[in-house]
Amino acid sequence: MARDFSVAVVGATGAVGRTMIRVLEERDFPVREVRFLASERSEGKELLFRGEKICVQRLDHNSFDGVDIAIFSAGAERSLIFAPSAARAGAVVVDNSSAWRMDPEVPLVVPEVNPHAISGYKTKGIIANPNCSTIQMVVALKPLYDCARIRRIVVSTYQAVSGSGQKAITELEEQVRAWVDGRSSEPRVYPHQIAFNCLPQIDIFQENGYTREEMKMVNETRKIMEDPEIRVTATTVRVPVFYSHSEAVNVEFEKKISASEARELLSAAPGVKVVDDPLHSIYPLALDAAGQDLVFVGRIREDISQANGLDLWVVADNIRKGAATNAVQIAEVLAERYL
After folding, report:
1. What would the pLDDT profile of 91-120 be if each residue is shown by its tens digit?
2. Which end is more exposed in the chain, N or C (fewer Cβ atoms within 10 Å of the end residue's Cβ)?
3. Does the pTM exceed 0.90?
């Protein structure tokens, strides 16, 4: 990268926003100036960036003058309102919400999978960051797809409460303490108790019986992989884990890939780490993935129920690779190749 950039982080005080700031620092993104933007509730707060205290400014339509890249993590409603303003001011928006993901004029990008799609930002000035559960799955599946093309994916997710924000983390903590103390604790974030429980509902149900989260995985996978013929079915489950989503992924290919071939392909894939020694109880764990930027893959085995199938266990930190890190990686490609 030959130049420095003015970067705005929108939703800077949220869990993902704070992680975006940390990832910008860790990856030494070429920042000339940084602006932290949030709602009026956070106006005036101070956040650290490279040892300097930066005052949080109130987000409005005039927040983006002189900004080159605006990384949004402020929810779909605010993104729909303010991302076009940022683009009109000359910034390129990298948006972490669901607002723009399925817009045909907005690229949906995972840098290890479809970095070339970033070039499409010029139409609206916006690049969409995919859903966290979709990101880790397509990173793991891309090298296998390139080898044998995928016909069908059956995925069941086990998603951490941090995917619902800080209030959900607090709710799990409070419910665990209440259980230890012999007290009851009413759920507020989720429809049922999450502590010591699994909830087969993430987001609201649609007319077809799938939740909105499940349909995100279906539609986003097809768009990112640039293959509308892939058949995808998903069951998304919230589990009492603080950080890192886990996924059981069953894949049917057009031709056979052995488990050993899959391990070799995945071991050479960008952003992937194979952790697969089940005889010694070594496989990806949510606790180990937390705080990491890699997608961990294990339990790689041939599906005994079909000729061209594989089963995988895929784990990644939903706040980092599933959100903040992926957004910063998009910004890196954007800055290096297009700005």
Report:
1. 999 999 999 999 999 999 999 999 999 999
2. N
3. yes
Known active-site residue 147:
no
**What is the C-alpha to C-alpha distance for residues 15 and 323, in angstroms, rounded to an integer?**
10
Q: Which of 61, 198, 245, 280 is catalytic?
A: 245
Question: Annotated catalytic residue: which of 132, 147, 192, 198?
Answer: 132
Query: Domains of the chain, with CATH numbers?
Result: 5-129+323-337 (3.40.50.720), 133-318 (3.30.360.10)
Q: In the numeric block, which tokens belong to residue 68?
A: 């080159």
Radius of gyration of the chain (CA): 20
List Cβ neighbours of 67 (8 Å cut-off, separation of 6 or more). Answer: 6, 7, 8, 35, 86, 89, 90, 91
Q: What is the pLDDT of residues 262-315, one digit of tens each?
A: 999 999 999 999 999 999 999 999 999 999 999 999 999 999 999 999 999 999
CB 33 within 8 A of CB 52: no
